Amino acid sequence: MMLHFKDFSKLKTKRIVFEDVYAARDSDTLEQLKELSSKRRIIEESINESSLITEAIAREMLFSSLLLFLKMFQETQKLEQYLPLLENLIQSAGLNSNNSQLVRWTSDLKIRWTSVLASSTIFNRRGAKFFQIDDLHFELGMTLSLYGALLRGLASKILSADLVQSTTIYRKAAGVYHHLAQEVLPSLQSASVQERPPEATSCVSSVMSLICLAEAQSVTIRKAEAKGSTGSLLAKLHYGVVQLLDEAMVVLHSATEDCKDISGRFLEYISCCKDLYELRSYKCLGESIKTDGQIGIAIGLLRQALVTAKKNIPEVESWRLVFKQEINNLTAVLRKYEHENEFVWHEKVPTHSELPFPQGKKIVSFIPYNVQRWERSLSFKF
After folding, report:
1. Which residues contact 79 (CB under 8 A, 6 or more apart)?
2. pLDDT tens track, the chain, 382 positions
3. For residue 184, what is the DSSP state?
4. Which of the ends of the chain has fewer CB neighbours closer than 10 A, N or C?
5. Are 47 and 11 in contact (CB under 8 A)?
6. CDD domains annotated for this entry (predicted)?
7. Nearest CA to 252 among 242, 264, 241?
8. Helix 163-179 to helix 136-157 angle, to the nearest 10 degrees?
9. Are 139 and 111 in contact (CB under 8 A)?
10. CA-CA distance, 227 to 229, in Å (whole number)?
11. What is the number of structural domains in the chain?
12. How far apart are CA 247 and CA 323, in angstroms?
């Protein structure tokens, strides 16, 4: 599987009370605004860890995978109840977008969120850094970013029990991030905002979509391994992950203006995952070629993979342990091949330029996000 990065869903937000800001013209509109605030308050309490649960229950949830999965599942349901109401408010606001009073009301909401991916996110005596953007699309964007992160977490938690369902959820998360990048955040990008969290930029949403697809493909590799697929196919699937992550790096580097506040640890995470799957691809390709009777080429590939891997060992301890285990496994295979070649085959080991290059195969795609909107009219006192 992919390396572990700190939870993308660890976002926090400040309270919003919609009915205190927007002046409802009728009782129906007032009730809808109150319902919107109520649904959001549930989310606020959940992600800010301010809900009324005992410390003992919190510890139990932390150490129980099943309870943690159920908690994440419940949080996705809370978002699924809030998002249609928010979409309806945004649509209504769009119909009155030229009204200056509506603009002032939206500013008075003081929509504030923290970031997991910003390099400037620091903790001080006053707590986490909050970004404020006076635009309802910022609220929608951060809520959908949280939703995608929670889906990704669910896919990870269900992985050991159901590979097929895990792949599906990863693909759904990729679809949420793709929708964010293509449909939601471009309108926010045009706003004159001095500072925004990376989660509210199209480039980072595109990158997150590609990461989720890479994770979905990594699950399909486990399924392929369980079915006894050939080394040649496994090598292509591993390198397909490399190609997805390469694409993510290109997106980040081509959008330096939007992504200039991105965490260096996040960039390292993508790069290390790419290096890890490249190593695995070379290992599978070498084993496949050795099976075909070309042990000299197999030895050359494994040697090259080891040299590259040893140059790219991560600094993060948990990632370093994974790399070292992969390097140890590959070293053992290489020694076996070299010993066999020395005493049996006596094949020449080709130079670096004579070795074949892994070919990639991407077999996953995102599941499009289906926007849900409660079609109920809102009437305001302008």
Report:
1. 43, 143, 146, 147, 150
2. 789 887 899 999 999 999 999 999 999 999 999 999 999 999 999 998 754 444 455 555 455 566 777 888 899 999 999 999 999 999 988 777 677 888 899 999 999 999 999 987 654 445 689 999 999 999 999 999 999 999 999 999 998 889 999 999 999 999 999 999 999 999 886 666 668 899 999 999 999 999 999 999 999 999 999 999 999 999 999 999 999 999 999 999 888 777 778 999 999 999 999 999 999 999 999 999 999 999 999 999 999 999 999 999 999 999 999 999 999 999 999 999 999 999 999 999 999 999 999 999 999 999 999 998 887 889 999 8
3. I
4. C
5. yes
6. BRO1_Alix_like_2
7. 264
8. 170
9. yes
10. 6
11. 1
12. 22
Residue 157, domain extent = 18-225
This prediction's pTM: 0.93
Number of DSSP helices (H) and strands (E) in the chain, helices first: 12, 4
Q: What is residue 207's DSSP assignment?
A: H
Which residue shows structure tokens 């997106």?
A: 251
Q: How many Cβ atoms sit within 10 Å of the Cβ of residue 336? A: 11
> And the tokens for 114?
């923290």
Tokens encoding 253: 């580097």
Q: Is 229 exposed, middle or buried (0-12, 13-18, 19+ CB in 10 A)?
A: middle
Write down the residue that tokens 């993308």 correspond to.
Answer: 8
- Is residue 208 in some structural domain? yes
Buried b (16+ CB within 10 A) or exposed e, 358-371: bebebebebbebee
Determine the 3-state secondary structure of 245 from DSSP: helix
Q: Across the strands, what pairs with 132?
A: 112
CA gap 382, 51 in Å, rounded: 36
Q: What CA dihedral angle connects 200, 204, 210 and 211, to 10 degrees?
A: -100
Q: What is the CATH number of the domain that holds 130?
A: 1.25.40.280
- For residues 321 and 46, give the distance between their C-alpha atoms in angstroms, rounded to a whole number: 33
Of 222, 225, 242, the closest CA to residue 362 belongs to 242
Specify if 57 maps to a domain: yes
Which residue has tokens 């260096």?
264
